[in-house]
From TrEMBL, chain A:
<feature type="transmembrane region" description="Helical">
    <location>
        <begin position="131"/>
        <end position="150"/>
    </location>
</feature>
<dbReference type="InterPro" id="IPR035906">
    <property type="entry name" value="MetI-like_sf"/>
</dbReference>
<keyword id="KW-0812">Transmembrane</keyword>
<keyword id="KW-0472">Membrane</keyword>
<feature type="domain" description="ABC transmembrane type-1">
    <location>
        <begin position="63"/>
        <end position="253"/>
    </location>
</feature>
<feature type="transmembrane region" description="Helical">
    <location>
        <begin position="7"/>
        <end position="26"/>
    </location>
</feature>
<dbReference type="InterPro" id="IPR050901">
    <property type="entry name" value="BP-dep_ABC_trans_perm"/>
</dbReference>
<keyword id="KW-0813">Transport</keyword>
<dbReference type="InterPro" id="IPR000515">
    <property type="entry name" value="MetI-like"/>
</dbReference>
<feature type="transmembrane region" description="Helical">
    <location>
        <begin position="231"/>
        <end position="253"/>
    </location>
</feature>
<feature type="transmembrane region" description="Helical">
    <location>
        <begin position="179"/>
        <end position="200"/>
    </location>
</feature>
<feature type="transmembrane region" description="Helical">
    <location>
        <begin position="67"/>
        <end position="88"/>
    </location>
</feature>
<feature type="transmembrane region" description="Helical">
    <location>
        <begin position="100"/>
        <end position="119"/>
    </location>
</feature>
<dbReference type="Pfam" id="PF00528">
    <property type="entry name" value="BPD_transp_1"/>
</dbReference>
<keyword id="KW-1133">Transmembrane helix</keyword>
<protein>
    <submittedName>
        <fullName>Carbohydrate ABC transporter permease</fullName>
    </submittedName>
</protein>
<keyword id="KW-1003">Cell membrane</keyword>
Amino acid sequence: MRKAAWTVTAWAVGIVFVFPVLWMVLTGFKREQDAASNPPAWLFHPTLDQYRQIFGRNVTPYLLNSLMASGFSTLLVLVLATPAAYALSMRPVGKWRDALFFFISTKMLPAVAALLPIYLVVKQLGMLDNIWTMVILYTAMNLPLAVWMMRSFLLEVPRSVVEAAAVDGAGLGLTIRKVIGPIVSPGIAATALICFIFAWNEFFFAVNLTATRSGTAPIFLVGFISSEGLFLARLCAAATLVSLPVLLAGWLAQNKLVRGLSMGAVK
Amino acid sequence: MTQAIATGAAPAGARAVTQPKRADARDRWARRLPLLPALIFAIIVTQVPFLVTLYLSTLGWNALRPGERHFVGLANYASVLTDARLRAALVNTIVLTAGAVLVSLLLGLGLAVLLDRRFPGRSVVRTLLITPFLVMPMAAALLWKHAIYNPAYGLINGLLGGHTDWVSSYPMVAVVATLVWQWTPFMMLILLAGLQSQSEEVLEAARVDGASARQVFTHMTLPHLRQYLELGALLGSIYLVQTFDAVFTITQGGPGTATTNLPYEIYLTTFRKFEYGEAAAAGVVVVIGTIVVATFALRVISSLFRMEEGR
């Protein structure tokens, strides 16, 4: 009996929390007049009109820009963070602790304080509205997170295994490829996922540094704010579309999520 | 499932100490080399802009009046520190961050307790609960503003009736509620990991000794969760203090300055008023404030470190 009550409560709470998302997805399949009805329309003829309109308004370049900015920045983050994490864990530099805290402290600096100089420099270099500017900024944004996370994964590599490889005469390259690599590759995947999510969702730098050419997915969404007339159904369809990649990735990797979000502190 | 707060400082620290004293320069550089690219990149992209901000903050520079760029010393700081808008923004930032962090932490704790027990469909419910966190923040903000709060066709009025304009009547609550909805799953995940790292045997022993469920929770679970609560609060604050999307979308900082937080205020100063000098000075003030708060926060992280080493 108590178990039944517990089950019902948990399910009810879960449904309440997910309801706005459900409503967003449903509304995306409505006609505009159904979406704007009061009381809310529960029964309606589903339509793909909104999605057709969104692709008609050329959402594709925005999605591709987001994919590029998130994908390349994630790659660059991994290339920079993995060796750094190695130098902060397996074969640590003298002041590894200071370095570690330096990285985390850059995460605490408010982005807004860096916006103006970054804007001016980027403008000077003629790199406004350029996707590579976003790649660099997203790399800097995710680097501390990735260093901490990768470090926590590298620390899990048993020292004895690495030493045994060295005794057997394996060089550093071989050890990394054959011994460390396989152990930490799930960690690398988890780190990549988290970095991708944060880059995909980023709005602040995107809205201030991009325009039509390299606008990312959230910028496409903002375009609806100024729309005249009814736009709720179209907005919900677009919001569903741009959230979908992260939703899918997050659902699939939910066991890794907590470790990434806590920068490796919670396993 | 073994879960623990582990920054794993101990083995690495021990290794650093046992380095031979005459570790020659070459070895030290070999150790540093893999670190350098990331370090240099981070310094160039995050520290240099701050130095530039420092320089800009001494200029009287409005981009709408080109050519009138001159050194004004600390004048910008004087106007920033006496600016009522900025003080309001500071208060709003604190209210918004603290409100969102505390409420999502409490709700997250409740949800974590719910999910800590086995019941049919637990993994499905967990998937449902983390979903809000995965929605793009901009999409979430737009969704709440238009589909939920809208007075004419929003979901709240649609279900409850009435014509309340939620965003203009309760602007701060509207923003915080949206953030809480997104961040509760984050807190839940961290606290759930904490709950599941408790030793089942110890809890069982307490129950056998006659402790009530409530006693077990307040005397054993909560103290155990303390570091997880701290971690959640810390990480949540780092992200939420920079809230921009929700303010930008839901209230545009209004009505008046009711929900203008520091990021949004500085954004306005930069890209709406084009007061570059003042914006830079405000940025410096924010950074100094952040450093003060961050020093405290880093101490919390350090204590988590030490806890690990003491094991």
